[in-house]
Amino acid sequence: MSDLPRLTEPAAHPPAVEVERLREEMIEKLRELGAVRTAEVEGVLRKVPRHVFAPEAPLEKAYAAEYALVTKKDEDGVDISSVSAARVQAMMLEQARIRPGDRVLEIGSGGQNAAYIAELVGADGQVTTADIDPDITGRAERLLARAGYERVKVVLADGEGGVPEHAPYDRIVVTVGAWDVPPAWVEQLAEGGRIVVPLRMRGLTRSVTFDRVGDHLVSRDYELCGFVPMQGVGENRMRLALLHEAAGEEVTLKLDDGQQLDAHLLRKALHQPRTEVWTGVTIGGYEPNDNLDLWLATALDDFTLLSAKPGARTRGIVASVSPIGVATLAVGDSFAYRTVRPVDEERTLFEFGVYGHGPHAKDVAERLAEEIRTWDQEHRSDRARIEAHPAGTPDELLPAGRVIDKRHTRVTVSWP
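Given the sequence above, the corresponding structure tokens read:
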């Protein structure tokens, strides 16, 4: 593993008036983004000094709504630990609805989020934060002490097993990307308790608010998010199928949940002339489309994600680039992916379309376009219901919808 960046000791305390100004600007921005919705969360954002937990960052960055501080990379330069952006932290705190007196477990340590939780639970509550990496727990412990939160219990442990010695928990907040929900998390959660977890389903990660109902979990909410992947026993990274490998122009398909495809045939398909299908479905320039992608992942057996470097779009190899991947249908020797085009000069309205490649590009593109229209006509205003049942649960006891089998659970995604 790469060394953790050395913690810096500030030469002097930053001016209080500057900290207050930046903090208020951050909170106002978080309100605009819808990340802060309650007085309780807004209150803790004012109490916890963010700059203490990001001594390596300029003050403006520490109080930026969308800035995530990477605290460790692996030997390949991949981010493996970070302090999440204020927007993501606020969003998950709102999802968790932590109350005074709650016992809370955080899986994935940074210190800052644990301090927020400590303020929410108050003197009668308990906060445990756990991480598999001693560098990270050591950093969290030092910064929590520096900020005056010594009462937070910092534990070195593989998050897969939770922290049984301080259970049961009213809330479990997972701040690393998880592919599954280990039994320990459900077992250590009090009846009626809540887990907030960035759960990956068919390549898509959503911060899911799960409430415990007996032996399984039922979603109450979910939000688009991105996190560094979980390490240890629960690690399960996505696989990549390379379709184009020129430096700066790489194009890959992201494979999840045991998905198999013929990369050789799809590499050939990428360099064949593309087929275009336009759906007639429009979306506003600032309107999110993450619920569309979740519908496509639910409806299509061969759903995957197309990932490409910006150079691939510049060269015209692909038309769409996204850091999290573009919704794609890959069938045999052909594939098609979602794209958009502006329909007004002001570029405030866009039409969804599909670009297909390969011998059967037209059929695959039409199939993807059909599901985009179905989403628009039947599910555009809907929210999916996500459940996590123990592995081995018979099909007849699961709700109708997409079943995603994982090591410990059978995750279901269903729509009204």
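Residues 16-234 form a domain with the Rossmann fold fold (CATH 3.40.50.150). Try to locate this feature in the token string yourself.
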